[in-house]
Design brief:
This protein has about 120 residues and is mostly beta strands. It contains no helices and eleven strands. The N and C termini lie far apart (about 40 Å).
Length: about 120
């Protein structure tokens, strides 16, 4: 299985920025999308962003579109999430995931998950 390790989370004030990284090791090849989900305590995990293997296609949840940017560097086996104009509503544990696919209920991950990195946005 591919191993995913997130980093870059932290505490920021509203309006600030963070850049999350997801480093992959082990089985890293996938023809499907990589991406990010997030989950706040007591809430269901929700889709944030996805990117195709080539990086040519990106997808975003409406709540983050225009503020977040997903990218990937396959040579480094790394996926990034640049988060700008952060809001308190963005506070959550952010998870990197492999093999994202969009189904009838929305985006889901068919592959591995990282352990998550905490993002806290204060007002």
């Amino acid at each position: 299985q591919v191993q995913l390790v997130e980093s870059g989370g932290g505490l920021v004030q509203a309006g600030g920025s963070l850049r999350l990284s997801c480093a992959a090791s082990g089985r890293t090849f996938s023809s499907r999308a990589m991406g990010w989900f997030r989950q706040a305590p007591g809430k269901e995990r929700e889709f944030v962003a996805a990117i195709s293997w080539s990086g040519s296609s990106t997808y975003y949840a409406d709540s983050v579109k225009g503020r977040f940017t997903i990218s990937r560097d396959n040579a480094k086996n790394t996926v990034y999430l640049q988060m700008n104009s952060l809001k308190p509503e963005d506070t959550a544990v952010y998870y990197c995931a492999a093999d994202l696919r969009r189904g009838v209920t929305g985006w889901g991950a068919q592959g591995s998950w990282g352990q998550g990195t905490q993002v806290t946005v204060s007002s």
